[in-house]
Amino acid sequence: MSHKRAAFTVVVALLLMLGFFYLWAKSEHKPQEAIQVADGFLGLLEAKQFGQAFELTVKHGHVGANAEELQAISARELCKLDRLASTFPFQSNGNRLRRLALGTEIEMPQVQVEFTGACLLGITLRRTAQDGWRVYRFARHAG
User: Which of 21, 71, 129, 136 is the most buried (most CB within 10 A)?
Assistant: First the structure.
């Protein structure tokens, strides 16, 4: 009888582990480094430290060519923000594991971090080979 009980216990344990793995694989991966850069960028803009904020950008295009242009864009786009709302595109833990197994790049090349508050604000970040995540664009948008 104890042999059957041990076999049953092993089967139950394996099923539980498979269930937990399935749930983990389907759950969303939050790109913490990109979120930290976006949050730090917002903090610097709110503190009016535009030179330091500019250092977290790709330094061209939609964020301006210098700290003064960034300041002007910030005056148009920034609002009082309460919290992080979401990231896009969705990437599951299982998708990251699959990419790792295939030997392809695990991180997405571009991520959008959404904040809510007095407005909705999206910050698009691009991953660069030399600097990691950098702000490419930020703007208010409709919900």
Answer: 136
CA distances from 2 to 6, 13, 15, 91, 103 (A): 6, 16, 20, 44, 45
Contact 107, 38 (CB under 8 A): no
Distance of CA 125 to the CA centre of its chain: 8
Query: Cα–Cα distance between 4 and 91 in angstroms, integer?
Result: 41
Cis peptide before 31 (omega within 30 of 0): no
> Do the Cβ atoms of 41 and 56 come closer than 8 Å?
yes
Residue 9 makes CB contacts below 8 A (sequence gap 6+) with none
86 within 8 A of 114, measured Cβ to Cβ: yes
Return per-residue pLDDT of the chain as tens, 143 residues. Answer: 588 888 889 888 898 999 888 888 888 888 999 999 999 999 999 999 999 999 999 988 899 999 999 999 999 999 888 888 889 888 888 888 888 999 998 888 999 999 998 999 999 999 988 889 999 999 998 86
Supply the pTM of this predicted model.
0.82
